[in-house]
């Protein structure tokens, strides 16, 4: 009898806490992008405290990895290119090491040393001609992930040649989403979404127990989408050429650079990647623009737990093995 009462009390308590869970969201600018942070919490006060924790974590990461902030360790590495190795935090060292790993995985399509050429292009839509081949050649020779020298023992990073640069534009938001999520999971937050302008990581479920869902917009017609996807692979990231691009002779080029030629890429409008981690999804979505849809989808199909939806610039879709599109 006593046991029964206890069970009943437990059930009442359990139901109460489930019912009290609510979804709270805050939108703000971080890392030069719009972030939406959503958490499941019991009340407004608790939710705001959780969201503050995530925001502080993202600020901390930005301060460490941003190549735009002169005081960051990344900027110190860049300033010392061709001069000397720079000792960095283990966190940054490991991020660079994983980035080099993704360069190997993608046969050099992904390369954080693309940044050596970044300054010769402007992707705000006004640039209509290419820089001269001499200018391109002078910078492209400095793109080479093999020349990012990591010294594990001393925890230093050295860019071998003057003129080399690194930047985390293609992976940083994904990394920040993963880290903010990990911190909130550690604090016991049962579910949420860290969405960095379409680069997102999710965990847990909505308060009613259903999966978080994402609608993937059709870039050819933004009033339509490819259907609602359950986020049981947790992270989903989209790279597109519709916000930052260059138009030359009526052709649109993405803000993603082919490390082999130093030229902006063409042929793909958007690449959406589902993966267990936003960092990997972010890097792969960028890489697909460089690899092209055929090579890109072949790589995706070889990676367990990773799926992709690619939209080519003629509007055709290239889907990985497990993606089923319900509607367009
Ligand atoms: P967004 O930042 O718009 O979400 P991406 O994740 O695709 O888009 O990242 C594009 C950014 O990645 C560029 O603005 C640039 O900073 C960086 N980048 C460009 N080309 C490469 C490349 N080949 N490898 C790694 N990073 C790149
Ligand atoms: Mg990316």
Automatic annotation (TrEMBL):
Molecular functions per Gene Ontology: metal ion binding; transferase activity
Record-listed E.C. numbers: 2.7.1.180
Cofactor: Mg(2+); Mn(2+)
Cofactor note: Magnesium. Can also use manganese.
Binding site residues for Mg(2+): 170, 282, 286
Entry keywords, A to Z: FAD, Flavoprotein, Magnesium, Metal-binding, Transferase
Keyword Transferase assigned: yes
EC top class named in words: transferase
Pfam families named in the record: ApbE
Catalytic activity as recorded in UniProt: L-threonyl-[protein] + FAD = FMN-L-threonyl-[protein] + AMP + H(+)
Family membership: Belongs to the ApbE family.
Protein name, as recorded: FAD:protein FMN transferase
Organism: Mesohalobacter halotolerans
């Amino acid at each position: 009898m006593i046991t029964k009462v206890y069970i009943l009390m437990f059930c009442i308590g359990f139901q109460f806490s489930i019912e009290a869970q609510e979804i709270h969201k805050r939108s703000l600018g971080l890392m030069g992008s719009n972030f939406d942070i959503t958490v499941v919490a019991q009340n407004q006060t608790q939710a705001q405290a959780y969201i503050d924790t995530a925001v502080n974590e993202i600020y901390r990461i930005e301060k460490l990895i941003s190549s735009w902030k002169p005081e960051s360790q990344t900027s110190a590495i860049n300033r010392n290119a061709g001069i000397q190795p720079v000792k960095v935090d283990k966190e940054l060292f490991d991020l660079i090491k994983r980035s080099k790993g993704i360069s190997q995985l993608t046969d050099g399509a992904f390369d954080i040393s693309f940044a050596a050429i970044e300054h010769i292009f402007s992707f705000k839509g006004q640039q209509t001609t290419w820089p001269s081949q001499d200018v391109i050649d002078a910078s492209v020779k400095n793109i080479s992930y093999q020349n990012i020298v990591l010294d594990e023992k001393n925890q230093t990073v050295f860019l071998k040649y003057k003129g080399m640069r690194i930047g985390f534009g293609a992976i940083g938001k994904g990394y920040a989403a993963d880290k903010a999520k990990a911190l909130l999971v550690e604090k016991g937050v049962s579910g949420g979404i860290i969405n960095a302008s379409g680069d997102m990581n999710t965990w847990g479920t909505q308060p009613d127990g259903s999966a978080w869902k994402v609608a993937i917009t059709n870039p050819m017609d933004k009033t339509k989408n490819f259907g609602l996807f359950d986020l049981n692979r947790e992270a989903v990231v989209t790279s597109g050429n519709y916000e930052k691009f260059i138009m030359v002779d009526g052709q649109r080029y993405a803000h993603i650079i082919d490390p082999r030629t130093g030229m902006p890429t063409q042929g793909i409008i958007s690449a959406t990647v589902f993966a267990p981690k936003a960092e990997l999804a972010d890097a792969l979505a960028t890489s697909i623009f460089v690899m092209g849809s055929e090579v890109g989808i072949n790589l995706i199909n070889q990676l367990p737990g990773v799926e992709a939806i690619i939209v080519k610039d003629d509007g055709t879709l290239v889907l990985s093995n497990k993606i089923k599109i319900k509607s367009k």
